[in-house]
């Protein structure tokens, strides 16, 4: 069973056809593509800030290797560890990117495939009760001995004659 994060661009719990098109499912799993070909995976998912950070770490490590006469294997091991970290966190990075783009986190679904996850999510949305309308508090009654103003402004218009 796989775990899927569900993000939606429309209002929460909206099961209309247009809302179904704006729902994104992100599978929570280790990404072998991101581990083996990190820059390509970051470009594919359009994670530009992470790509810039990855390249900056690579440049800094190469500069450290040159300046301090470190073995080249040290830089390779650090970059391999950084690639491993990105491969583990790729689903979370994608979810954060979608949230910054205006998507809402609708929760998570556990299912074997994407189709099963979609079916389970939309069945759950259809079973949710519609939110109850908020009651409007009644207006305070006018006390029996209170005098209403005779002159002045009533509503948005000043009291006077219309010509």
Give the topology.
Elements lengths: L1 E7 L8 H5 L1 E5 L4 H5 L1 H7 L3 H21 L3 H29 L3 E8 L2 H14 L25 E2 L2 E2 L5
Antiparallel strand pairs: 1-2, 1-3, 4-5
Short summary:
By secondary structure, the protein is α+β, with helices and mostly antiparallel strands.
User: Can you summarize the main beta sheet?
Assistant: 3 strands, antiparallel
Low-confidence stretches: none
Global mean pLDDT? 84
Multimer state = single chain
Beta-strand content: 5-15%
- What is the string of helix and strand elements? EHEHHHHEHEE
Our Rg estimate from Cα atoms comes to 29 Å
Q: Helical residue percent?
A: 40-55%
Report the span from N to C terminus. 77 Å
Strand order of the largest sheet: 2-1-3
Q: Tell me, what's the shape? A: elongated
Number of helices: 6
Q: Could you tell me the number of beta strands? A: 5
- Find the structural class using helix and strand composition: alpha+beta
What does this structure look like?
This protein is an alpha+beta fold and 163 residues long. It is 50% helix and 15% strand. It is built from six helices and five strands. The protein has helices spanning 17-21, 32-36, 38-44, 48-68, 72-100, 114-127, and strands at 2-8, 23-27, 104-111, 153-154, 157-158. α3 packs antiparallel against α4 and α4 (48-68) packs antiparallel against α5 (72-100). The longest helix has 29 residues, at 72-100. The radius of gyration is 29 Å and the shape is elongated. The relative contact order is 0.18.
């Amino acid at each position: 069973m796989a775990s899927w994060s569900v993000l939606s661009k429309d209002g929460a719990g909206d099961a209309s056809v247009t809302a179904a098109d704006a729902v994104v499912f992100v599978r929570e799993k280790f990404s072998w593509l991101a581990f083996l070909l990190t820059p390509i995976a970051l470009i594919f998912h359009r994670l530009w800030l992470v790509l810039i950070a990855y390249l900056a770490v690579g440049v800094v490590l190469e500069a450290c290797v040159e300046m301090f006469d470190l073995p080249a294997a040290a830089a390779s091991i650090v970059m391999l560890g950084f690639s491993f970290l990105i491969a583990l966190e790729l689903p979370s990075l994608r979810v954060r990117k979608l949230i910054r783009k205006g998507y809402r986190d609708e929760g998570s679904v556990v299912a074997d495939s994407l189709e099963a996850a979609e079916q389970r999510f939309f069945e759950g949305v259809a079973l949710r009760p519609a939110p109850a309308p908020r009651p409007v508090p009644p207006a305070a009654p006018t006390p029996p001995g209170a005098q209403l103003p005779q002159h002045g402004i009533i509503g948005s218009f000043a009291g006077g004659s219309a010509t």
